[in-house]
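Propose amino acids for all 1273 sites.
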C-alpha cells in the first residue's frame, strides 16, 4: 500500500509582534533531538519543536546571529550548530551561546560551507575564492588556500580527504585536501551555474540553470537533475528528467532517498541507491499551497525520512509528514537518536502495580533519552508557550560623552580620565528604559533646549497630535488638484523664539564651562521611517538652509557655506556649471549644483553628498590628506581647523583653473579703456592678467630674494588665496634658523622685549615682511642665509581670507586659569578691540584635538584670545612700483588701521593715501566639544536678510547669534580657523562678475534633452563584438545600446522653457554602504548610520499628451566606479556589470550629466509626478519646490487614512493589471505613476469635494480585506 503524505502544520513566527514576519532563508534539523532550526533574512536563528497537528510550532529558542540573511545551518555534535551568513560564520549552542565567530569583509561574502560527518572540521569559502579549513572544537583555522572561483555549494569528507565544490560558473570539481587543494577531477555540469549539490555515497546529484534558448541574455532553471559518479567525474551517468516546467532549486539526501524541492514548493523523491532505480519516483512527496507571489525559499528533510520542511518567501513554514491514518495527535519523529528497538521495550503484566517507564535499565544499549516521563494529568512546566517567552538582559548605560571626548590612544590602547561620579560598577536605570532606548529619547534629551522639548521625529509629533503622518508630509483637507502644502512643525511657542529672543537665548546659553548646546556637534537620529522622519525644522527657523553632517568628509560644510555666502564666488560657479563643461569630476560644477540647491531650498535641510563624493574621488585630495579615514577622523591625525585651511586653498585653486574660460570680452574692454586714464588702464591690464577667481579672493604677492655674498637677486610673483597669520609670539630661534627655518627680525626683537603683537599688526605682517632664510643660492652654488622680502602693490579688491595659527605652541602659557579669569584678565598695555594686542590664554600643554585628557576642560585654555576679532579695519598700500624692488623698511608696504570713521583717506607723515575699508563677513571656528566628540567646525556669517545680524551654521542647525559672540575669542573651547574679510568697495570686481553673468547666465540649455550626448560615448569601431568594424548581426552584452528614451522635440523644448511642461519621474538606486547598526543584549537594534544609496538609473516620461504621451525622454544608467555593496536587483532591476563601462549592455552616462538634466527640470518650473518623491529627491541630492511636486503617495492619504499605499496596489486597483512582476523598471514605474495620477485627477475634476474621499474609502476597505496584497488573476 502506498504511503500517503499530508500537511502536518503551517506556522509563521516573528521575533516581535510589532514587526513583520521575515522570510526563512535556511532550514535544518537537529540529529540528536527533536529541534528544527530556522534562519531568516534578518539574521535571526530560531529553534522549534512540533506540537500537534494543525497547531503552530512551539518556539524553543530565538537569538540574533547576524545582520545579514542566514544562508546555511549545519547542526553537529551535541547541541551545537554552525551558522553561515553573508559576512559571519558562527558556532553556537542550541540555546544561543556563541562559541566562536569568524567574519569577512563586506566585499567578500561567504558563499559556501560544509561540515564533515564527525562534526570536527568545516570548510568555508568566500566570493573572492579564499577558502579555509576550520577546526570546530578549537575554533582555529587549520589551513588557508585559494580556490579562485565563486563556490556556491560544497561537500566535505575529512576521512577520505575529499572536497567537492560547485561553482557559479557551472563547474563541479573534486579536490584532494591531502595534496593541497588541487583539482583532481572536474566537469562542466551546467551551462550557467550550479544551484545546489548533494552527495550520496559515490554519486553526486546536482541541479542548476541554463541559458534560455529563445533569449541569449536570459538564464532559466534547468528542468533536470544530473547525476555524476565521483569515481569518474566526467559526463553525467544519468539525467533525471523531472518534466516540462520543473524548476528544482533544493536537493536533500536521506539514506537512499533523494528529495527534490521545486520553486513552487512541490517536493518529490527518487531512489538514490542503485543506478537502475534513479528514474523511479519514491513515495514521499509534499504539495504545500503557497501564495500567489510566493515561492520556496528553504527546504530540508528530517533524518528519519518521515517529515519534510518547506518555507516560502511570505515567512510561512510548511511541515509535511507521513499520514499513518491513526489519531491526529501523532507527531512525526525528527531525530534518529531516540529510536528504541521494539524487542528492547519490555512488557508488564500488571500495569496497575508497576510504573510504565518503557525501557529495560539493565540493557546498556538503550539510551537514557528514551526513558518516558510516565502518565501525567497536566502540562509540565518545561512545556513553554510563546506568551511565556520573555526578553532577558538589558543594555548597560552608555559612557557619558563628556568622558569619551577626552579619549587618548597610545599603541592601540585607549584611556580616558574617570571623573568618578558614581560608585564602582554602578548602573542606574529608570523606568521605561527599554522604550527610551529604542525610541532614542535617552540620546535626545541633550537637545531639549534647542527643540523646545518637542519630539525630533515627525511621526511622533503627528501621533501625539492624533493626526496623520507620512514621514514628514501631511495632506491638507482641501482636495484641490495641485501641490500639497506641508504642515509646519514649529509650534506657536517656538515661533515666539525668533529674532532678538533667540539672540538673547543664545547669549544666556553661552555662559558656562562647556560649549552651549547650539555649538555642540549636531547628530541626526533615525527612526524606523529613516532619515526622512527627522524634523530638521526644529533646528532652523530661518530662510537659510543648513547642510547635514552625517556624511563622510562633511567637515567641509562650514567652508561650503562660506563660499556660498560670498556673492561673487557664487555667481561665477553658477555660471560655470551651466556651461558645457566636459570634466566629469569638476568641483566648480558640483559647487554650482550645491549652491543652486541652497538658493531654492528656502530653509529646508540639504546635504552635499554628491560634491563630497567627487572630492573623495579626486586623487589630489587624498595626496593632500584632505579626506577622513574610515572612522570619520582626519587621515593624518591633524586638527579639523588645519584641515579646513588646506581645503580652502585646494578648492579655490581648482575653481581658479576650472573657471578660467569665463574671461571678459576683449572688444568691450578695449572700448572701455579709451575713456580711462593711463593709471586706470595700467590697473585694468594687471587685472586682465588675473583669472576671475584670483580677482575675487586673495592678492598678488611679490618676492625678492637677495644673496648677501654674491648680491644676486631673484624676483617672482604668486597669488595668495589665503594668508597665514603669524603666531602672536614668535617661536623661531637660532636653532630653527640653522635648521633651515625662517625668522622675522622684528618678531625676535619683540620676543626679547616681552611685547605682544596685536591682531591688526599680525594682519599687516601677512602682506609685507622681511625674513632671513637658509636656502640654496644658484650663483654661489651653496647654501646661504638669503634675505627674502615679500610685499604687495595693491590691496585685495574682493575678499581676504586669513588662516589663524593652530599649532600647539601658539596657545601654550605659563599658568592655568579659569574661563572667568581669562575673560577679565588683560595684558599690561592691552588696548581695545580694533588695535589692542593679542594675549594668549593660559593652560598647560595642549594639542589640536582637545587638550589634556586628565584636566578639567575649564582649565584647558587652548585658544583664549583676550581681544575680540575686529569687525572692520582699514588698509593702505604704499605707491612704490613693484618692479623697482624698493620697499620701505620702516613701516612696510602695508599699514592696517582701526576703522574709527568713514574717511576714505589716511593721513601719514609724508602723504595722504587712499584707504580701503575691510569688513568681517564670515569666520570658521573649531569647537572642541568634549561632551559629544573631540572636535567639529561651525561657521558664523552675516545675515543676508539683516545687515546688522549674524547667523550660526552648525551643520543643519541655523540660528541668529549676537555679534559679540561671533567676534569674542575668549572661550577655551573655541579656536578660530579662518576669517573672511570683504573690501567695502568692490565696484570694479562687481562689474567684472556682472559681465560674466551677462555673457554666461545660469541657464542650463535644453540641448542636453533634445540632443543628449555623454562623454562616455565610444565610437562604433571601438566597441567589443564589432571586430574589424563590421556588424556581426548578433547582440552582445558588451555593446552599449540606445536606451528606451526618445529625445525631446523642438516644440517640447519650447514648452519646457515656458514652464508649462509636465513629466512623470522614477529612479532606481543601489547601496554603496550598508547601514551601521548597534545590537543590544535583548536583540533590539538601533541604527547609527543609514545605508548610503546612490542613483543608478533615472527615467522621466512625458505627461503633456500627444502622440508621445507616456514615452520616456530620459532613461539614463549612471556609471558608478565606487564599490557597490548591494545592487538590490529585485527592487532596482540593476545587476552586476550594468553600471560599468565596457560590460554594461546599456548606454551609460556620468552622474554629473544625469543630475544636470534633473536640475534643468527643476529650474524650468515643470510639474514632476512621482511616487515617494521626498525619498527619491533626497537620494538624488536635489530640492524641488513643493509647488512643482505631485506625489501619488501623499495624494492618497488623509487624516483618517495614513497608510502609504504601494504604487503596485494603486495601479492594480485602477486598472486591474499588475506591474513589477519580476523586478522594478523605472520606466514602467514612471508610466504607472502617470496613469494613477491621471485617474486621481479625473476623480477630483468630477467631484472635487466627495469623489476622492469615496475612492479612498473603497481603496482602504479593499486593501484591509486583501492584506494589501494583489489577489490572483
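Proposal:
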Amino acid at each position: 500500500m502506498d504511503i500517503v503524505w499530508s500537511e502536518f502544520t503551517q506556522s509563521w513566527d516573528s521575533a516581535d509582534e510589532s514587526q513583520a514576519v521575515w522570510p526563512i532563508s535556511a532550514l535544518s534539523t537537529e540529529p540528536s533531538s527533536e529541534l528544527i532550526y530556522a534562519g531568516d533574512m534578518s539574521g535571526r536563528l530560531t529553534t522549534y519543536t512540533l506540537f500537534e497537528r494543525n497547531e503552530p510550532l512551539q518556539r524553543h529558542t530565538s537569538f540574533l546571529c547576524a545582520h545579514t540573511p542566514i544562508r546555511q545551518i549545519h547542526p553537529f555534535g551535541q547541541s551545537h550548530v554552525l551558522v553561515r551568513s553573508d559576512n559571519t560564520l558562527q558556532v553556537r549552542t542550541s540555546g544561543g551561546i556563541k562559541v566562536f565567530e569568524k567574519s569577512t569583509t563586506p566585499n567578500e561574502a561567504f558563499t559556501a560551507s560544509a561540515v564533515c560527518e564527525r562534526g570536527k572540521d568545516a570548510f568555508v569559502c568566500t566570493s573572492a575564492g579564499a577558502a579555509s579549513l576550520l577546526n570546530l572544537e578549537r575554533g582555529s583555522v587549520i589551513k588557508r588556500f585559494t580556490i579562485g572561483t565563486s563556490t556556491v555549494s560544497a561537500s566535505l569528507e575529512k576521512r577520505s580527504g575529499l572536497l567537492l565544490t560547485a561553482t557559479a560558473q557551472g563547474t563541479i570539481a573534486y579536490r584532494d585536501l591531502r595534496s593541497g587543494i588541487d583539482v583532481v577531477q572536474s566537469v562542466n555540469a551546467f551551462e550557467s551555474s550550479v544551484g545546489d549539490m548533494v552527495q550520496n555515497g559515490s554519486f553526486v546529484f546536482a541541479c542548476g540553470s541554463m541559458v534560455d534558448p529563445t533569449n541569449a541574455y536570459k538564464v532559466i532553471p534547468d528542468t533536470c537533475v544530473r547525476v555524476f559518479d565521483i569515481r569518474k567525474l566526467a559526463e553525467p551517468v544519468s539525467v533525471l528528467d523531472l518534466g516540462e516546467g520543473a524548476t528544482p532549486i533544493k536537493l536533500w539526501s536521506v539514506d537512499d532517498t533523494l528529495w527534490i524541492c521545486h520553486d513552487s514548493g512541490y517536493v518529490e523523491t527518487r531512489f538514490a541507491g542503485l543506478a537502475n532505480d534513479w528514474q523511479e519516483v519514491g513515495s514521499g512527496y509534499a504539495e504545500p499551497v503557497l501564495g500567489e507571489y510566493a515561492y520556496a525559499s528553504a527546504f530540508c528533510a528530517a533524518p528519519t525520512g518521515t517529515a519534510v520542511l518547506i518555507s516560502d518567501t511570505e515567512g510561512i513554514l510548511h511541515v509535511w509528514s507521513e499520514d499513518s491514518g491513526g489519531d491526529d495527535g501523532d507527531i512525526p519523529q525528527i531525530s534518529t537518536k531516540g529510536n528504541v528497538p521494539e524487542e528492547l521495550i519490555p512488557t508488564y503484566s500488571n500495569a496497575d502495580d508497576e510504573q510504565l517507564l518503557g525501557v529495560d535499565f539493565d540493557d546498556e544499549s538503550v539510551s537514557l533519552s528514551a526513558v518516558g516521563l510516565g502518565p501525567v494529568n497536566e502540562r509540565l512546566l518545561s512545556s513553554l508557550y510563546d506568551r511565556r517567552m520573555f526578553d532577558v538582559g538589558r543594555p548597560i548605560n552608555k559612557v557619558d560623552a563628556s568622558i569619551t571626548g577626552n579619549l587618548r590612544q597610545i599603541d592601540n590602547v585607549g584611556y580616558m580620565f574617570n571623573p568618578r561620579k558614581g560608585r564602582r560598577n554602578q548602573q542606574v536605570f529608570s523606568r521605561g528604559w527599554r522604550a527610551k532606548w529604542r525610541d532614542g529619547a535617552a540620546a535626545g534629551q541633550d537637545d531639549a533646549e534647542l527643540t523646545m522639548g518637542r519630539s525630533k521625529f515627525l511621526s511622533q509629533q503627528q501621533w501625539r497630535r492624533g493626526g496623520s503622518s507620512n514621514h514628514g508630509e501631511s495632506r491638507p483637507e482641501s482636495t484641490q488638484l495641485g501641490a500639497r502644502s506641508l504642515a509646519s512643525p514649529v509650534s506657536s511657542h517656538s515661533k515666539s523664539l525668533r529674532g532678538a529672543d533667540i539672540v538673547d537665548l543664545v547669549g544666556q546659553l553661552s555662559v558656562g564651562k562647556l560649549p552651549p548646546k547650539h555649538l555642540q556637534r549636531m547628530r541626526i537620529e533615525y527612526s524606523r521611517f529613516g532619515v526622512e522622519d527627522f524634523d530638521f525644522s526644529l533646528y532652523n527657523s530661518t530662510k537659510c538652509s543648513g547642510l547635514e553632517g552625517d556624511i563622510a568628509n562633511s567637515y567641509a560644510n562650514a567652508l561650503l557655506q562660506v563660499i556660498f555666502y560670498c556673492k561673487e564666488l557664487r555667481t561665477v560657479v553658477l555660471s560655470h556649471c551651466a556651461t558645457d563643461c566636459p570634466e566629469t569630476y569638476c568641483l566648480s560644477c558640483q559647487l554650482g549644483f550645491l549652491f543652486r540647491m541652497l538658493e531654492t531650498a528656502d530653509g529646508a535641510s540639504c546635504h552635499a553628498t554628491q560634491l563630497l563624493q567627487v572630492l573623495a574621488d579626486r586623487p589630489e585630495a587624498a595626496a593632500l590628506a584632505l579626506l577622513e579615514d574610515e572612522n570619520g577622523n582626519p587621515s593624518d591625525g591633524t586638527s579639523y581647523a588645519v584641515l579646513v585651511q588646506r581645503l580652502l586653498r585646494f578648492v579655490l585653486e581648482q575653481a581658479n583653473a576650472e573657471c578660467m574660460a569665463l574671461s571678459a570680452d576683449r572688444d568691450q574692454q578695449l572700448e572701455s579703456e579709451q575713456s580711462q586714464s593711463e593709471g586706470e588702464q595700467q590697473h585694468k591690464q594687471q587685472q586682465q592678467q588675473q583669472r576671475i577667481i584670483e580677482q575675487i579672493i586673495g592678492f598678488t604677492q611679490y618676492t625678492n630674494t637677495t644673496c648677501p655674498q654674491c648680491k644676486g637677486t631673484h624676483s617672482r610673483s604668486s597669488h595668495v588665496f589665503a594668508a597665514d597669520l603669524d603666531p602672536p609670539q614668535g617661536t623661531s630661534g637660532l636653532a630653527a634658523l640653522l635648521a633651515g627655518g625662517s625668522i622675522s627680525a622684528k618678531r625676535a626683537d619683540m620676543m626679547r622685549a616681552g611685547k605682544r603683537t596685536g591682531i591688526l599688526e599680525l594682519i599687516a605682517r601677512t602682506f609685507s615682511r622681511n625674513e632671513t632664510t637658509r636656502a640654496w643660492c644658484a650663483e654661489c652654488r651653496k647654501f646661504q642665509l638669503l634675505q627674502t622680502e615679500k610685499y604687495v602693490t595693491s590691496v585685495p579688491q574682493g575678499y581676504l581670507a586669513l588662516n589663524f595659527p593652530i599649532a600647539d605652541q601658539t596657545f601654550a602659557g605659563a599658568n592655568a586659569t579659569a574661563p572667568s579669569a581669562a575673560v577679565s584678565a588683560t595684558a599690561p598695555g592691552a588696548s581695545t578691540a580694533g588695535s589692542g594686542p593679542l594675549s594668549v590664554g593660559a593652560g598647560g600643554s595642549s594639542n589640536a584635538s582637545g587638550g589634556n585628557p586628565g584636566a578639567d576642560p575649564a582649565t584647558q585654555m587652548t585658544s583664549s584670545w583676550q581681544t575680540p576679532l575686529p569687525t572692520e579695519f582699514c588698509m593702505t598700500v604704499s605707491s612704490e612700483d613693484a618692479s623697482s624692488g624698493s620697499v620701505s623698511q620702516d613701516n612696510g608696504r602695508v599699514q592696517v588701521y582701526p576703522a574709527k570713521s568713514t574717511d576714505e583717506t589716511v593721513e601719514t607723515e609724508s602723504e595722504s593715501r587712499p584707504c580701503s575699508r575691510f569688513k568681517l563677513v564670515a569666520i570658521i571656528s573649531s569647537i572642541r566639544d568634549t561632551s559629544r566628540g573631540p572636535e567639529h567646525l561651525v561657521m558664523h556669517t552675516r545675515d543676508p536678510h539683516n545687515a546688522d545680524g549674524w547667523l550660526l551654521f552648525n551643520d543643519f542647525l541655523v540660528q541668529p547669534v549676537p555679534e559679540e559672540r561671533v567676534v569674542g575669542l575668549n572661550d577655551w573651547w573655541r579656536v578660530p580657523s579662518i576669517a573672511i574679510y570683504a573690501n567695502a568697495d568692490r565696484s570694479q570686481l562687481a562689474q567684472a562678475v556682472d559681465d560674466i553673468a551677462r555673457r554666461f547666465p545660469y541657464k542650463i540649455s535644453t540641448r542636453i534633452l533634445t540632443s543628449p550626448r555623454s562623454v562616455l560615448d565610444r565610437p562604433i569601431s571601438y566597441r567589443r563584438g564589432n571586430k574589424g568594424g563590421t556588424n556581426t548581426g548578433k547582440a552582445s552584452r558588451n555593446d552599449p545600446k540606445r536606451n528606451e528614451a526618445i529625445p525631446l522635440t523642438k516644440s517640447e523644448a519650447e514648452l519646457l522653457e515656458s514652464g508649462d511642461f509636465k513629466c512623470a519621474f522614477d529612479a532606481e538606486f543601489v547601496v554603496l554602504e550598508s547601514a551601521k547598526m548597534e545590537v543590544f543584549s535583548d536583540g533590539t537594534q538601533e541604527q547609527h548610520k543609514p545605508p548610503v544609496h546612490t542613483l543608478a538609473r533615472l527615467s522621466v516620461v512625458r505627461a503633456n499628451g500627444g502622440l508621445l504621451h507616456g514615452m520616456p525622454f530620459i532613461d539614463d544608467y549612471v556609471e558608478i566606479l565606487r564599490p557597490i555593496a548591494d545592487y538590490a536587483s529585485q527592487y532596482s532591476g540593476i545587476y552586476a556589470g550594468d553600471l560599468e563601462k565596457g560590460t554594461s549592455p546599456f548606454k551609460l552616462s556620468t552622474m554629473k550629466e544625469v543630475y544636470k538634466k534633473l536640475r534643468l527640470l527643476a529650474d524650468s518650473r515643470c510639474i514632476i509626478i512621482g511616487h515617494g518623491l521626498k525619498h527619491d529627491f533626497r537620494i538624488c541630492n536635489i530640492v524641488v519646490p513643493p509647488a512643482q511636486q505631485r506625489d501619488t503617495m501623499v495624494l492618497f492619504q488623509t487624516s483618517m487614512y495614513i497608510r502609504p499605499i504601494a504604487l503596485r496596489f494603486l495601479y492594480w486597483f485602477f486598472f486591474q493589471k499588475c506591474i513589477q512582476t519580476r523586478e522594478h523598471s523605472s520606466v514602467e514605474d514612471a508610466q504607472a505613476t502617470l496613469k494613477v495620477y491621471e485617474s486621481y485627477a479625473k476623480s477630483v475634476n468630477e467631484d472635487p469635494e466627495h469623489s476622492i474621499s469615496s475612492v479612498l474609502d473603497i481603496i482602504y476597505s479593499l486593501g484591509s480585506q486583501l492584506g494589501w496584497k494583489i489577489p490572483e488573476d
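The longest helix spans residues 1226-1246. The chain has a mean pLDDT of 76.
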